[in-house]
C-alpha cells in the first residue's frame, strides 16, 4: 500500500505521515514538496522511526513484517511527471496538505480563507498533474478545504467520489466540548455529534443527532451557540498559543490517518472487517444531494476503497438544513 502526501515537507503533511507510520508501519509513504530538504529530512527521520526493531523493545511493533519505505520526491522531478503520472498511479491514497505559507491574518478566527486565492492556484496546478493519472481517493486537508477539494476535483476531471475534504477535527473538538460540559462524568468517546457544512465559520453541528452514551441529548439554544462558538474559535487559540506557525497538528494528523486507514481497508475497520453503523462526515462535491449542487461540503458519506461509496441523506432539523444552505451559499460565492 502506498500513500502519497502532497505537501509532506510541511507540518500537517509530516504529522499525517508519522501517524500513518506508527498506525500502519508496513505501508509505503511518498512525500512531495517543493521544500525538498524539509521533505527529505522528514523521510529520513520517519524511516529511522521504523527501525526500532533493531533493539529489544522495538521488536513487537513489526511482528516479523518489513517496515514500509519512506521517500521524498522533488516536485521538479514531477515536472517530468506532469506527463508521467507514475507517482499518482502508484498511490492507493493521496493526501493533499500542500498550502501557501500562513500569514498573520490566518492566525485569527476565519483565517482559513486568507490562503484561498493562493491555494486555489496550487489546487489548479495539482489537478492538472492528477488529470494524467489514475483516479485515486484523495483526502484534501489544505484550507479552505471545501473549496480546495472542489477546485481539485474540477481540475482533475476525476469522478467526484474520489475527493474527501477533511473536517473531522471539528467533530473531535465538539465531542471534547460536550464531554467537558458534562463535568467529567462523560468520556468524549461516549459522545457523538456529527458536523456537516463548511470546514469553517459555516460548520453545522447536527445537534438533532447528538447522543451521549447512545442516548439523544437536548441542549438549550444558548448552550448550542456557546458550544459552536467554542468549536469555531479553538483552532485559532491553539495557533496563537503555538506562536502562529503551527496549527492543530495532532488532532488533524490522527484524524486524517484514520480516514486513510479506512480507505486502505476498503471502507471497513481493518481489524473487524466491519463497515460500522454510522457514516462519517467529509466534504465531497454535491450533485443534487440535500438539494445542493456546484459545491463541496461535509455531508455523511459511506467509504469504500475508491472514496465515497454513498452520500447518505439525513432528515435534518429546519435550522440545520438552513445552516447547510447558508454554508453552500458562502462556499459557492467565494469561488465565483
Ligand atoms: N482541514 C483541516 O482540518 C486542517 C487542519 C490543519 C491544517 N489545515 C490546513 O492544511 C494546510 C497545511 O498546513 P501546514 O501547517 O502543514 O502548513 P505548512 O506551511 O507547514 O505546509 C504546507 C506545505 O505545502 C508545501 N507546498 C506548497 N505548494 C506545494 C505544491 N504545489 N506541491 C507540494 N507541496 C506544496 C509547502 O512547501 C509546505 O511545506 C494549510 O492550508 C492549513 O490551513 C487544515
Ligand atoms: O489551519 C487552520 O486554519 C485551522 C485548521 O483548519 C483546523 O481546523 O485546525
UniProtKB/TrEMBL annotation:
<feature type="binding site">
    <location>
        <position position="173"/>
    </location>
    <ligand>
        <name>substrate</name>
    </ligand>
</feature>
<dbReference type="InterPro" id="IPR022383">
    <property type="entry name" value="Lactate/malate_DH_C"/>
</dbReference>
<feature type="domain" description="Lactate/malate dehydrogenase C-terminal">
    <location>
        <begin position="172"/>
        <end position="335"/>
    </location>
</feature>
<feature type="binding site">
    <location>
        <begin position="7"/>
        <end position="13"/>
    </location>
    <ligand>
        <name>NAD(+)</name>
    </ligand>
</feature>
<dbReference type="Pfam" id="PF00056">
    <property type="entry name" value="Ldh_1_N"/>
</dbReference>
<feature type="binding site">
    <location>
        <begin position="141"/>
        <end position="143"/>
    </location>
    <ligand>
        <name>NAD(+)</name>
    </ligand>
</feature>
<feature type="binding site">
    <location>
        <position position="119"/>
    </location>
    <ligand>
        <name>NAD(+)</name>
    </ligand>
</feature>
<dbReference type="Pfam" id="PF02866">
    <property type="entry name" value="Ldh_1_C"/>
</dbReference>
<dbReference type="InterPro" id="IPR015955">
    <property type="entry name" value="Lactate_DH/Glyco_Ohase_4_C"/>
</dbReference>
<dbReference type="GO" id="GO:0004459">
    <property type="term" value="F:L-lactate dehydrogenase (NAD+) activity"/>
</dbReference>
<comment type="function">
    <text>Catalyzes the reversible oxidation of malate to oxaloacetate.</text>
</comment>
<feature type="binding site">
    <location>
        <position position="112"/>
    </location>
    <ligand>
        <name>substrate</name>
    </ligand>
</feature>
<dbReference type="GO" id="GO:0030060">
    <property type="term" value="F:L-malate dehydrogenase (NAD+) activity"/>
</dbReference>
<dbReference type="InterPro" id="IPR001557">
    <property type="entry name" value="L-lactate/malate_DH"/>
</dbReference>
<feature type="binding site">
    <location>
        <position position="33"/>
    </location>
    <ligand>
        <name>NAD(+)</name>
    </ligand>
</feature>
<feature type="active site" description="Proton acceptor">
    <location>
        <position position="199"/>
    </location>
</feature>
<dbReference type="GO" id="GO:0006099">
    <property type="term" value="P:tricarboxylic acid cycle"/>
</dbReference>
<dbReference type="InterPro" id="IPR036291">
    <property type="entry name" value="NAD(P)-bd_dom_sf"/>
</dbReference>
<feature type="binding site">
    <location>
        <position position="143"/>
    </location>
    <ligand>
        <name>substrate</name>
    </ligand>
</feature>
<keyword id="KW-0816">Tricarboxylic acid cycle</keyword>
<dbReference type="InterPro" id="IPR001236">
    <property type="entry name" value="Lactate/malate_DH_N"/>
</dbReference>
<protein>
    <recommendedName>
        <fullName>malate dehydrogenase</fullName>
        <ecNumber>1.1.1.37</ecNumber>
    </recommendedName>
</protein>
<dbReference type="GO" id="GO:0006089">
    <property type="term" value="P:lactate metabolic process"/>
</dbReference>
<feature type="region of interest" description="Disordered">
    <location>
        <begin position="58"/>
        <end position="84"/>
    </location>
</feature>
<feature type="domain" description="Lactate/malate dehydrogenase N-terminal">
    <location>
        <begin position="82"/>
        <end position="165"/>
    </location>
</feature>
<comment type="similarity">
    <text>Belongs to the LDH/MDH superfamily.</text>
</comment>
<keyword id="KW-0560">Oxidoreductase</keyword>
<feature type="domain" description="Lactate/malate dehydrogenase N-terminal">
    <location>
        <begin position="1"/>
        <end position="53"/>
    </location>
</feature>
<keyword id="KW-0520">NAD</keyword>
<feature type="binding site">
    <location>
        <position position="102"/>
    </location>
    <ligand>
        <name>substrate</name>
    </ligand>
</feature>
Amino acid at each position: 500500500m502506498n500513500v502519497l502526501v502532497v505537501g509532506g515537507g510541511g507540518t500537517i503533511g509530516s504529522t499525517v505521515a508519522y501517524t500513518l507510520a506508527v498506525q500502519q508501519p508496513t505501508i509505503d509513504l511518498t512525500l512531495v514538496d517543493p521544500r525538498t530538504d524539509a521533505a527529505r529530512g522528514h523521510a529520513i527521520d520517519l524511516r529511522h522511526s521504523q527501525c526500532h526493531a533493531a533493539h529489544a523493545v522495538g521488536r513487537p511493533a513489526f511482528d516479523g513484517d518489513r517496515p514500509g519505505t519512506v521517500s521524498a520526491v522533488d516536485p521538479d522531478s514531477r515536472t517530468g511527471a506532469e506527463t508521467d503520472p507514475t507517482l499518482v498511479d502508484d498511490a492507493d491514497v493521496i493526501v493533499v496538505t500542500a498550502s501557501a505559507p500562513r500569514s498573520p491574518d490566518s492566525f485569527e478566527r476565519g483565517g482559513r480563507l486568507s490562503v484561498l486565492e493562493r491555494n486555489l492556484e496550487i489546487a489548479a496546478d495539482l489537478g492538472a498533474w492528477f488529470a494524467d493519472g489514475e483516479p485515486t481517493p484523495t483526502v484534501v486537508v489544505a484550507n479552505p478545504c471545501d473549496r480546495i477539494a472542489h477546485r481539485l476535483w474540477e481540475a482533475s476531471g476525476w469522478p467526484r467520489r474520489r475527493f474527501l475534504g477533511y473536517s473531522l477535527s471539528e467533530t473531535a473538538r465538539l465531542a471534547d466540548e460536550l464531554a467537558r460540559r458534562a463535568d467529567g462524568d462523560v468520556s468524549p468517546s461516549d459522545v457523538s455529534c456529527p458536523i456537516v457544512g463548511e470546514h469553517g465559520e459555516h460548520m453545522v453541528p447536527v445537534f438533532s443527532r447528538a447522543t451521549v452514551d447512545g442516548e439523544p441529548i437536548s441542549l438549550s439554544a444558548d448552550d448550542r451557540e456557546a458550544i459552536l462558538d467554542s468549536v469555531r474559535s479553538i483552532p485559532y487559540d491553539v495557533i496563537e498559543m503555538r506562536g502562529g506557525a503551527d496549527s492543530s497538528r495532532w488532532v488533524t494528523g490522527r484524524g486524517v490517518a484514520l480516514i486513510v486507514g479506512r480507505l486502505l481497508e476498503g471502507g471497513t475497520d481493518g481489524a473487524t472487517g466491519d463497515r460500522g453503523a454510522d457514516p462519517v462526515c467529509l466534504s465531497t462535491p454535491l450533485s443534487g444531494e440535500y438539494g445542493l449542487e456546484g459545491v463541496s461540503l461535509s455531508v455523511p458519506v459511506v467509504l469504500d476503497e475508491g472514496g465515497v461509496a454513498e452520500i447518505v441523506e439525513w432528515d435534518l432539523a429546519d435550522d440545520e438544513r438552513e445552516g447547510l444552505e447558508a454554508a453552500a451559499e458562502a462556499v459557492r460565492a467565494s469561488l465565483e
